[in-house]
Phytoene desaturase (Marinilabilia salmonicolor), 490 residues
Amino acid sequence: MEQKRCIVVGAGIGGLAASIRMAARNYEVSVLEKNKLPGGKMHQIERNGFRFDTGPSLFTLPHLVTELLNLGPEPSEPTFRYEKLKNVCRYFYDDGTMINVPGNPEDFAREAEIKTGEPAANIINYLNTARERYRSSADLFIFNPLKNLISSARHKKPEELKPLLKVKPLRSMHKENEIAFQSSQIIQLFDRYATYNGSSPFKASSMLNMISHLEHDEGAYFPEKGMYNIVESLYHKALSLGVKFQFETAVTHLVSEKDSITKVIAGNKELEADLVISDVDVNTLYRGPARKLKMPRSVKKPDLSSSALIFYWGMNRTFPQLDVHNILFSTDYRGEFRAIFNNHQLFNDPTVYIFVSSKIVEADAPKGKENWFVMINVPPGTEKTDQEWIKQARENILKKIHRTLKINPREDILFEEIATPKTIETNTGSWKGALYGNNSNSIWSAFLRHQNKSRKYHNLFFTGGSVHPGGGIPLCLASAAIVEKEINQQ
Ligand SMILES: Cc1cc2nc3c(=O)[nH]c(=O)nc-3n(C[C@H](O)[C@H](O)[C@H](O)COP(=O)(O)OP(=O)(O)OC[C@H]3O[C@@H](n4cnc5c(N)ncnc54)[C@H](O)[C@@H]3O)c2cc1C
């Protein structure tokens, strides 16, 4: 039988996953990628003996990666290895409190009680609720097309849906956390999960409080060779299944005829396709290659997720007070989110995330040194990100580190690289540098998100962080699985 041709536009994590799935289904798959290398937001920098993962650093649900590596006639050589982190994260507060969150709920609850006075039972109850919510909703909201919501729910037993019926979706994440906990530090710790899809805990629905279940209960993991190894492993898997990659090939045009996409144009290349799967941020896609297609309302006026300003610092020494993942919390979390989503400004007391992969992957920094990935959330948008803006943010970060950790890292920075909303947009095609497409600041966000199959074109599909079910590695991988289901059903 003649093989059907599938073109995947973009080799981000969603595009790689979709290419593997379609090749395993015996499609002839070509991936067109504008960059020189695969990965999109999941990239790496190597400099002076240091290696930095440039984008994602928090890794949950690793089985979604291994599942892909086992597709096709021959499972991959097990070159992709990962380990469960002993500690999920270290949280630092300006008053000197440090909560070292261990990888199991009981130890975490004990540590929280010792450090903040929050009764351990409150943490355990909260995580139990998050687990129940996740289990009763994951296949409705994450692993299936949203249009199947009602039919999927019909297949569930009433007791399976009970945890969902107890959710008060109009309540914000913060409000629910305020009701659940006594300690303002624990409230802030759980509020932070809104940032996992670039949203504000003061606006996003309490339904999203289940995100914490993934790290605290299912576990936080790390690939043995760093995050970029996820990309390398998937890329090699795709190659082994016969996927053809064309790098430095930016798609400029999707050509439609009646209800199908007939051709994909990339510069002077013209490729015919039976199926097209786009991994490009939809907000960019409809303003670029798909500008002739009808733009959905959520794309016309996108309510974007946050962006980031990141400094990659090669550090001249090691810092025992830090772990792999570290958060230095703002003293005014509400003010910080107001600055990001309402005032579109830098905040002078930002929450600073410091990720040090060399704590776990020794080869990521020369002996006696560390690779710091230092990130703050900033508004999406590329207009105000000039040198003055970067300088101001850098000062805010250095002051915050000094205030909270009582160290002055200035003299220890050997060199730095910087990522801004502008460079994130240029390098990955994310509209305005938004990390996760549109935000989830409204209870309708999940329903308004762009779906994985085009309504008009029967052979056009969408994967990646800007479409259903959302951004972040696990959800991007889920989006590729949904695309496969949609194509299969068709
Ligand atoms: C700084 C940062 C930190 C993050 N932290 C985490 C984290 O800790 N954990 C987590 O799970 N997630 C995190 N994320 C989110 C996660 O990285 C993304 O959700 C995910 O990587 C997006 O994958 P994607 O499939 O949408 O493709 P993308 O990574 O967006 O890639 C899209 C690809 O399409 C290509 N492209 C664009 N236009 C064209 C065109 N016209 N023609 C051809 N190719 C094109 C781009 O070059 C790019 O390679 C983070 C993201 C960033 C930026």
Q: What stands out?
A: The chain has three domains: 5-43+61-82+226-301+443-489, 86-219, 307-378+386-419. The first strand starts at residue 5 and ends at 9.
